[in-house]
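User: I'm curious whether this sequence folds into something compact or stays loose and floppy. Could you predict its structure so I can see for myself?
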Amino acid sequence: MSSRLPHTLFRATAIGAVMLASLLLPLAAAARPTQPFAAAAVFPLWWSRQRVETAVADLAMTARPGRLPAVINVTGGATLHHQLREAGAWILLDPRLVTCAS
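Assistant: Here's the prediction. I'll summarize afterward.
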């Protein structure tokens, strides 16, 4: 019985990852920022709120934290999306979508 446990655990993890990806990828594609000067940036989930705020401090005119520590709503200049990616953001979303949920 114990020899089947690693196989079952691997299979369950793989199925869970596929399910999560199938839910998140279409959401991320549909929720792309529509304004070039504003975005909700999702940074690595293990980053603290302070690290996220430090990452966007120099490039954002305004920054409001999201409900999760790794999410922040920012407004900035014309190259904001590029700068957020360089600062470490994984996903950029329409800030209106994130604001509604928080």
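Summary: The chain has four helices and four strands. The beta strands are 38-42, 60-65, 71-76, 91-93.
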